[in-house]
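Worked Example 4.2. Consider the chain below.
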Amino acid sequence: MKIQVVKADITEIEVDVIVNAANSSLLGGGGVDGAIHRAGGSAILDECRDIRNRQGKCKTGEAVITTAGNLPAQKVIHTVGPVYNGGERLEREKQDLTNCYLNSLKLAEMNNFKSIAFPNISTGIYRFPKELAAEIAIKTISNYKSETIKNVIFVCFDDENYQIYIARLK
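Applying the procedure from the previous section yields the following structure tokens:
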């Protein structure tokens, strides 16, 4: 599996599936979640509502898949990252973030996707330390064995995350 890092807007990346750092409501929000919902259009929100009506909110670490609407990708995988509090909850938060990547990869593989793009999950308003988040993301992706997925792209919106990922992948 080839791993790349780009500094870009994830809503403009041409891959089979992009991952959305969603909130548990699945109804859009700020950051990457809001950007994906705005750029993708109402079809994404409609499918997210259908999912919520079937299963309720999406739990931390879990993932669901919808159309990509107006985005260049075929589908969007929505995963709910952990809110960082640290302290005695740190091990649980690290496992939850790992599960975001694993469950997204599993969904991509189940749908026979060859390329997937990830944002920097939980490093914005959810305050997960960027260095630790990058370490978890890269380790999880690197250790994942897939017959289907050939290309993984970490899409960094800011310079700080971009530099962290570039340094860790050398």
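The first helix runs from residue 31 to 40. Residues 63 and 86 are 23 Å apart (CA to CA). Compare this with Example 4.1 before moving on.
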